[in-house]
Specification:
This protein is an alpha/beta fold. It is built from 29 helices and 8 strands. Helix 8 crosses helix 9, helix 9 crosses helix 10 and helix 14 runs antiparallel to helix 16. It is extended, with a radius of gyration of 39 Å. About 10% of the residues have low confidence.
Length: about 575
């Protein structure tokens, strides 16, 4: 008898022999045991994860003479004929080579005939996504309401290519990629049964190259066994699978750590000359650096290493790396992997990635250098203000008249850089209406909730005090908040857009400190009262002025309020000399 590959000889013949896919096996076995099977199933997932094998096992269990049972007996005539491929009631249909509508119509015409020797007539359609649109349309009605004796099992690696009308008529089972542990365990079973000695590190290399596919793993294992002869070695596995040795990983990682880019590029050139694919190299390096991170953060989880071998040299290398460096390198390699997909010059991208990794700084340094100059200036200004407040809290309010001029000069310096827009404020007051100011105040809380946290913090002590049809005056309790808001163009634009969204009008904010607002409004009331010549406007203006007359609220010292906000009222003591 001709030699058969491992993946054919050791194809699972029952659910218990299948590796992984517990969620699929348990659901199908319960349906078989309690006679709750349906007419159409869709098995989807990556290649080599057991879709076709599960379909054949399910077909055997449905037609087994011992049914209802959760497993096929593999002893009855029906099970044996399905295993041999001679059962006329189990039809395997390859949609990749029979995608035309004519082949599908031939199937549909035979669906109405009863099974010859079995309980069910089962159609296994592999790679069903390859069917043409006409074939899908021909299958649609039959798939929805087939005869009672017919079961359809559709298998595909690309379920997104199937029409939704087909998917909705099937019970869908998603097969997952096999883990490296599952693949290694299955290869151990195969080699033990075949009485072939093995090296577990060799099996890990093969499992890594298989990328979650059991069929790929068994095919590679077959190649390594044929190449090695009596004993499988790590070098043989690396050569057959196209992987690289751990010593090469060590060499390139140490060269990058020492910023010896010449050595790193020399080793990369050697790997490419040996026939290694740069795309595969990027993936392997990501996995290797991931193993280094794993050993750093969880030294006890060495069983979860995917590429590296747990040895003292590997642990020493992991200690030499900063986690931030490994995160940066993995990020660079991930971006390079995406860019390689659209280029034929993959080696150049790999070389560029090594240069970036050797020259990469700590992420904290890169983010600090990206801070805008405007933000740095504001931070310096706030730091100076905090130092002044801390000095005042420690030394008290100063020595009477000597402290007052100094405090006044500090306030003038803070206010000197902001120019009060007196003309614009007077224009708003001339055209101010109660309807506009009421519309702004009504939507004020909603707009505040929609703003960014940094923007809404500026408005904690701000208040809209007058509004016209296209603008409104926004009064700030503290001069520094007013200045910061006026210099932030993004804040003004965002605030105006939100007001337009909720109030129905586009109001442009005009910023003014509290003290300046009182003076401007008082002057406007006097001028408007003189021009009007009536007592009515004067009384209305005075009524709208909550700070005029004898009941004016005493203005709080902004330095004291700021100190209380920063350090808490319990830690601030004010001494009056």
């Amino acid at each position: 008898m001709a030699y058969q590959a491992f993946y054919r000889v050791y194809r699972p013949q029952s659910f218990s022999e299948m590796t992984g896919q517990t969620h699929v096996k348990q659901t199908l076995q319960n349906a078989l045991l309690y006679n709750k099977t349906t007419h159409a199933y869709l098995f989807s997932g990556p290649r080599g994860t057991g879709k076709t094998s599960a379909a054949k096992i399910f077909a055997k269990a449905l037609n087994c003479e011992q049914a209802p049972a959760s497993e096929p007996c593999n002893e009855c005539a029906s099970c044996k004929s399905i295993n041999e491929g001679s059962n006329t009631d189990v039809i395997e249909f390859d949609a990749a080579s029979n995608s035309r509508v004519e082949e599908m119509r031939e199937i549909i015409e035979k669906v109405r005939f009863s099974p010859a020797n079995s309980r069910f007539k089962i159609y296994i359609i592999d790679e069903v996504h390859m069917l043409s649109n006409s074939a899908f349309n021909a299958l649609l009605k039959t798939l929805e309401e087939p005869p009672e004796h017919v079961v359809f099992i559709l298998a595909t690696t690309e379920p997104h290519k199937l029409p939704l009308t087909i998917i909705s008529r099937c019970q869908r089972f998603d097969f997952k990629s096999h883990t490296q542990v599952d693949i290694v365990a299955r290869m151990v079973e195969v080699l033990t049964d075949a009485q072939i000695p093995y090296n577990e590190q060799v099996l890990k290399i093969i499992a890594q190259a298989a990328a979650g596919g059991m069929r790929d793993a068994l095919s590679l294992l077959d190649q390594v066994v044929s190449f090695s002869g009596d004993e499988m070695t790590i070098e043989d596995a690396l050569l057959v699978t196209g992987s690289i040795s751990q010593d090469m990983f060590y060499g390139i990682a140490e060269a990058l750590l020492a910023k010896d880019i010449g050595q790193a590029l020399t080793l990369l050139e050697q790997l490419v000359r040996d026939g290694k694919d740069p795309v595969r190299l990027v993936e392997d390096f990501i996995t290797f650096f991931r193993d280094l991170l794993l050993i750093q953060t969880a030294p006890d989880l060495h069983d979860m290493l995917e590429l590296a071998t747990h040895e003292p040299r590997f642990e020493e290398l992991a200690k030499r790396f900063e986690p931030a460096t490994l995160y940066t390198w993995i990020d660079i390699l991930s971006k390079t992997q995406q860019e390689m997909r659209f280029s034929n010059h993959t080696k150049i991208y790999m070389e560029t990635a090594l240069l970036k990794m050797a020259q990469a700084d700590v992420p904290v340094q890169s983010t600090a250098s990206a801070v805008s100059p405007e933000l740095e200036a504001k931070v310096i200004q706030l730091e100076n203000l905090v130092r002044e407040l801390q000095q005042q809290v420690q030394n008290g309010a100063g020595s009477g008249a000597a402290a007052a001029p100094a405090e006044q000069k500090k306030r003038q310096r803070v206010q000197s850089s902001f120019k009060i827009p007196t003309g614009r404020i007077q224009d708003v007051l001339k055209n101010a209406t109660k309807v506009d100011i009421q519309a702004i105040k009504t939507n004020w809380a909603t707009v505040m909730n929609q703003l960014q946290r940094s923007h809404s913090a500026l408005l904690n002590d701000a208040e809209p005090v007058a509004a016209s049809a296209d603008a409104f005056v926004l009064k700030f309790k503290y001069d520094i908040h007013c200045q910061m808001a006026s210099e932030n163009q993004t804040f003004a634009a965002t605030f105006s857009q939100l007001l337009e969204q909720y109030a129905g009008k586009a109001y442009t904010p005009v910023f003014v400190p509290d003290a300046s607002w009182l003076k401007i409004r008082e002057e406007f009331i006097k001028k408007s009262g003189l021009k009007a010549g009536t007592e009515e406007k004067q009384s209305e203006a005075e009524e709208e002025n909550p700070f005029s007359g004898e009941g004016a609220v005493a203005e709080e010292d902004p330095f004291i309020s700021e100190a209380e906000r920063l350090f808490g009222k319990d830690f601030v003591e004010v001494h009056d000399d």
